[in-house]
Write a structure and sequence with these properties.
The protein contains 17 helices and twelve strands. It is α/β, with parallel strands linked by helices. It folds into two domains: about 280 residues, 3-Layer(aba) Sandwich (Aspartate Aminotransferase, domain 2), CATH 3.40.640.10; about 140 residues, Aspartate Aminotransferase, domain 1 (Alpha-Beta Complex). The strands form two sheets. Strands 1-7-6-5-4-2-3 form a seven-stranded mixed beta sheet, sandwiched between helices. Strands 8-9-12-11-10 form a five-stranded mixed beta sheet. Strand 4, helix 7 and strand 5 form a beta-alpha-beta unit. The chain binds pyridoxal-5'-phosphate.
Amino acid sequence: MKDRDFGFATRTVHAGSRPDPTTGARALPIYQTTSYVFEDTESAAAYFNLQEYGNTYSRIMNPTVAAFEERVANLEGGVGAVAFASGLAAQSAVLFTLLRPGDHVVTSSALYGGTVTQFKHVLGKLSVKLDFVDPDDMDAWRAAISPDTKLLFAETIGNPGGNILDIEAIAKLAHDHDCPFMVDNTFATPYLCRPLDWGADIVVHSATKFLGGHGTSLGGVVVDRGDFDWSNGRFPVVADPSPAYHGLQFHETFGVYGFLMKLRTETLRDLGAAMSPFNAFLLAQGIETLPLRMRQHVANAQVVAEFLSAQPGVVKVAHPGLATSIYRPLVEKYLPEGTGAVFCFDLPGGRQAGSSFIEALTLFSHLANVGDAKSLVIHPASTTHRQLSDEELARAGIATGTIRLSIGIEDSNDLIWDLQQGLDACESNS
Ligand SMILES: *Cc1c(COP(=O)(O)O)cnc(C)c1O
């Protein structure tokens, strides 16, 4: 495929895979193998020295997983990608690659709950310091940065308030301090926003969600833009001779691929959270319909958000696509095609209303996931955030009557019919 910049939809179908040269198979083959035969001892040695790039063992690389990685890297506009067994595995691999005891991370406070736990407890145990800041407050980001800061982190669309990140401004701040900026782009997907185009250095995904799109497979992926200067004196972990790889200097040796090579051949090799070839197949196939699905997800979510905000029994709809949203200017800049399909709204009747609402729904599935083709619902106060007091909930931006929706690709009038059943149940129970 030369001499043409193919469009996004074309690349979702073709990037990373071509007809299998040995069998002619048109679909992506599932290379369900742990290991690969070497041609001879010399080429085996070259692979293990990283003098040649080739398959050795599927904990480090696999051809089906490689097709998935190349597809995501292409769509996000990165130089490459490394896949992991889950989104949290992908994030932790970046943290383990970059951070040492005494280092400091500044992160948005509007995050997926599992990420908050990972950051607080795993990083805390490793003596990495952490500051959570309001993602909308540039002064707070600036004030939190210290000489030890080695990473800034946030989500494109934050949880549960639907905050839209000013990616360009935070990337600039990070670079003014010789620090990389990592963005979790799970809720937006590269169809709606490409953070690397706005200056972010690293993108992570829970591919479990919209990329796969059908709630079948866990997966995560890290994409690198490739031009952060790891040799700026602040990242000896990437630039200096590595004791875990016979003194190899990853940045000097591999240039724009230095960080990803380190992430793959050391961190993935040593932590072992590899993506399975079967999951890579399902996730790569899911991406083939990403533009079609995202258009329907976004359109349905908009209709549902507008319906909910017109209901007297609903107090707040935190959907950044609404005309009343304070995020309008940022939406127009970063997410002109839509703000995704996951958002929260509040029922005034607290925990009791939340339960009544969820019990009455028949089409929405009550479960702890997002980004499925099927519509999903959860009441955080009685499930994911059950351990928190009302006060702690409020600090996390969650009310006792907050409901989170992940809008699927069904007919939107059926979704509204179902939500009306929930609202009627709150009414009759209050
Ligand atoms: C689900 C999710 C994660 C974690 O991904 P897993 O694949 O469940 O490990 C991280 N960030 C966001 C925004 C998510 O929705």
